[in-house]
Give the backbone structure.
Amino acid sequence: RKMEKQSVGGVGSGDGSALPGVPNRNNKPRALAISIPRQASGDAETDSPTGSHVEWCKQLIAATISSQMLSVTPDAASRDCKVGHTALREGTKQVQMDEVPLVPGETVKAVAKDVMYICPFTGLVTGTLTCTDYKLYFISLERDSPFILDVNLGAISRLETISVQSHGENTQGLEMVCKDMRSPRFAYKTEGASQTEIVEVLTKHAFPLSNDLPLFAFQYKEEFPVDGWKVYDPMAEYKRLGLPNESWTISKMNGMYEVCDTYPALLVIPTSIKEDELKRVVAFRARHRIPVLSWIHPESQATIVRSSQPLVGPSDRRCKEDERYLQTIMDANAQSHKLAVFDARQSSVADTNKAKDGGYESESFYPNVELNFLEIPNIHVMRESLRKLKEVVYPTINEAHWHSVVDLTHWLEYIRVLLAGAVRIADKLESGKTSVVVHCSDGWDRTAQLTSLAMLMLDGHYRTLRGFQVLLEKEWISFGHKFAARVGHGDNNHANSERSPLFVQFIDCVWQMTRQFPAAFEFNELFLITILDHLYSCLFGTFLYNSEQERNAMEVQTKTVSLWSYINSQPDDFTNPFYVDYEHHVLYPLASIRHLELWTSYYVRWNPRMRPQMPVHQNLKELLFLRAELERKVEELQREAASSRGSLSSSSEHTSSPSYSGGTPLHTTV
Amino acid sequence: MLSSLGSGGGKTAKPSFVSYVTPEEIKSEKEPYKKENQPDLLPGEVVFCSACPVLKYSQDDMSQRGVFGTLLCTNFRVSFVSDEVQVEETCKLFKNKLYGENDIPLACVDNIYGGYEDKKKLITGGLLKNKYPSKIIVHCKDLRVFQFSLTYSKEEDAKKIFQGIVHHCLEPKSLRCVYAFSYCENTTSPEMQRKERTMLFDCLEDWTQDMKRTKGNCRLVTENSSFELSQKLPQFFIVPLNVTDEDLVKFQGNGLPMWCWSHHSGCALFKTASLPLSQEDNVPQTYMEKMLTAVAHNHLYSVKTEDLSDTLPTIQDIQLSYNKFKQFFLIDNTTEFWMSDMKWFSSLENCGWLDMIRQCLLKAVEVVECLEKENTNVLIMEESGSDLCCVISSLVQLMLDPHYRTLLGFQSLVQKEWVAGGHAFLDRSNQLHLKEKVESQSPVFLLFLECVWQLHQQHGPAFQFSETYLTVLSDSVHVPVFATFLFNNDSHRANVLRAESPSSQRGPLNCPSVWDWSVQFDCRAQDLFTNPLYAQKTKQDRSQRKSHRPKHQRQLSLPSSAFKTPTKKGFFKDEADSLKKILGVKRISRWMLSPSSDFPPMSSIKEFYETWQAKPLDYHGMLLPCLDGPSIRVWMQRYLRWIHDVQILGGGPVAVLSKVSELLAEVQELRSELDRHARTVTSNHRGAIRTRAKTAPENLARSSVRLSSSFPFVTSRNWSFKPAIPTSMLQSLMMSEVAGDLASREDDGSEPETVV
């Protein structure tokens, strides 16, 4: 082992520019990824505590070997220029300090000088505030290094004037309460016209839908080499699952969304169901969300089926067709003579729902059905929990009582309940070889969380970079998780009780799984954080609107860009270097509080003290690079030996030139 | 629920090696097993008593199932030998040569409980005759939990084994009864190789070398080599140059500033046992002032002092807190586990253990700031001078000196600060169970290891040793074989080893050091002690550092205080005398008034940390820990490794480490291939080598899928691949309590609600 390690240094010392040693200053990931003016502007961003977080996330995670190389090879740098340019907020790097970096299609709406940013971490700083139709951009040059803060307008939940008398007379304060766990505060003089104007402009563009303006996604004019809208093709995905088969058919009955307006056009339903029977089932399920197949086990043929609650009502209504429908689902799986219904709700709440014409499948009416309640609280409880969590982590962390204050938010407790529920579902399929039906009330919140988590545990494909995109497109986007309502895109009604961070909670669960299985996922933490940032940003069309029908009506696919276009144009940044394909291994995360952790690099990322300095991944990337370098040397020697001309000395000259630019395969398959 | 092994995991279900029998089954058999099994005894090990058959409950479920075998008590351990054919030990990579998975070294026994029908009672020695419980529950200091049923063996045997275990594990005994002495008399431990070795600081050269390495300029005291000066002082030690011979003997070593480490700027860290100062008696105060002046003279006439007992917990606090903390991991069954999972965060906070770790790290950072930023000499003190002083001084050195982050460096540090430094290991562990020593029992060394682990998990690549190494070290404290942890100080060790020597000609008894890891583990297991992520200093780095050493060091250090600017050196020489007076006197008088007002305030510490954090991280430079709430964590590997319910199958840090190891192996292979090519440029045998390079690491990676988060301590082979599912009834109780009226609302409730 010792020898190997020395070898790490060996190559580095052979050629200073190719691979700097580990603790080398130049090797800091901050200088990576982004191409042109590297040095001066590079420091700017990282030193400002709330500067572009993508940048520091990159430091944190995505210091890929290939991008390291890009920063030293001229030709590669120019190639990267395109991606770098398009890379959203990192674009800041390429412009002069006094210029606001803009994404294509973005226009400056107002500028105000001498605005004070009340930084909770480093104190007051005065600079220029710019408002565009996409973001708020603050820059101050009064410190040693430029201080930059930028906030996507989409992340703003509400704007509030605050009292800032301590900062002088005639001073007005503005607090932007954001959905992404921060609340930046500004102070400005009321006599300045431009200052007052910018607040007006901000109020207008932060909530475009409330002001009859389009969402920015429709103005964004970036072109990516990859088209993210092609990531999810339902037919292809069902085919991958081995569908249709003799028991299941891919139905087009919802082609015009006439059966259920919140479901996708293509649905997988039991083959033997007749049309008139189906009509009864449609009528018996809340919002017509009938039981449809989400996933099928490749061996046992046990299935995950999702739906909404049955409309049982206070008088215990029955629907023969619905009962038969579930029976058919059970029969489609020869391995088990049971069907497990997982009702995500708390049993008491499910009972209350009966009074409101909802309910659950009674075991006495549905033969061979076993009913389980997963006891997960509703969207209001979750919203309240995240709100409490924000109080605990922003702007300051309660040090002495950290554990008890986190405990009081119950956020991790709910994560635990969700994971535990998903583990039960996955186990029922895997060990019990039994098909499951999952529902909550409407089947678009907790149901989506549970089915997609269970699928992530059961199917290694969803743990890849592309596979996870498919999972989101399918279980969340196409099956009508009400993103617009839950996030409140472009809407100023911050108190709307439909808002709830259910998707954030799901991504947190995924992150917990990646923590427990650090080598089982092809994507990295930056990928998850990027998804959450663009859940709010309104830059991409991916998470806009409530259903496939609405998205079609708004022509989202033709008029906006997909988040996956951006991601898949630079997959290296989002790839986990430790990834090992676990193939068909089922992953059961531990739903024990002892193994759950607060996702500090997302929730507490605005606090500069919580930023890790050097990713551990860095080491591995260096090793990967070293391996590639050695492989290349060996090959070159090979070639030269074959031509029986080359001498060893000349070949080593070749190898030390930094011409390497191809990507190393970042993962291996077992 | 969890014990239904049969249905487990479909394709992943493997035949389990241990067959389980229920008590009912065994009763129906005609005759219980008669034959008694014996473990392979170690040299000098003697069996005291045994009983058979005894049922050992399997840990991982709450049913009454288990394995039958023989329970023995020897002078080294409590041992259970299964009647079943042993799991082929070859598959166990990480096997301790001294004790197996069913052995408990006597010193490792923490508490014994007796199970009487449904009640569980703590056994405290002083037994009632003729009474014995039906069940013995043993909680170990390495956090294992064993449960044995005595109901199947003969009453007499059961009584004997119970009383034997209680007697040998809980009742007072003399030091010479500790197994180490019979072990050492019956083995000849080979001398540790002197070439690349851990410095034991039991000889002059080690001290000279360490002072030379850190460029310290202090006085090496050799006058105590036969403990003429004091029994409390180490054989060799280092004091400031200005300490006179007379000063050395004044208060039996109390108040004497002992050198720990020199900073590259010239200032140094000293520690001392504090002198009781009183109003009436002026002598100690004058002496203390003299000592402080001596420390101040070491560098730039400035000194800061810190009485650790002012701000850090006492050893009793530490013991109390740890006693609460460890209970969360000594889990008897699954139900208990999931119950305690509910209260995890609040329990964690109430016991205060993590906060103690934070306080120690914070204090160390304060000292680091004085040395690094202000280049001031620091003298830390406490009553004993060998408890928290050891914690803080070793942490400071770990943070400032990358040498101590290597494996050998770390071991040398423990030798220097703890073993030679006179930490009373015997009293702190109280493994002799002396009534008068109960108060002095405290896991101070473990607290230090906890702090090291925090640094390790925050800055992994800076350490050459692994997390597993730290865990094993924390276990080894309770293996009564090593001289390292068996004594209270240098003279105690020397006296006992001389007295116990079989013959005076052969010199003192040769007791192995814990650093001789081959006593416990073979080479392959020892491989797990090194951290594959360690960022070894490259050759390039080293040469760089050598060539422009002074410049480089300034880069490393933070902006230093005013009077350390090199341009003013001349000024110092000229006016040294007057300045000396001003600075020296001022500092000391301040210390006399209020001990810790001199120390950097909290805001300064924060700034110090943030300035450091803003710079590029150098794994071979200064390391500071982040102390914010979420950053101080629980040492999962140490505390959760034995609890079946929290094993992440196929996950845990090992998944990452095996990936790195795999890559390292590949790189190694490629390099040797390059070498081969260099030698035989013309011959072409590449193909053969390439295939080998590919297959070996792939197997490694594949195996990580089957490892669990408790690797390497528990192998998951005989576990079913079933998920742990928390009991849901508890959840609902919890939830309804918590959620209040929000929970009963409709998901798409139309009534608007104010979000504050």
Summary: Chain A touches chain B through 122 residues (CB under 8 Å). Chain A has a mean pLDDT of 82. Chain A is about 40% helix and 15% strand.
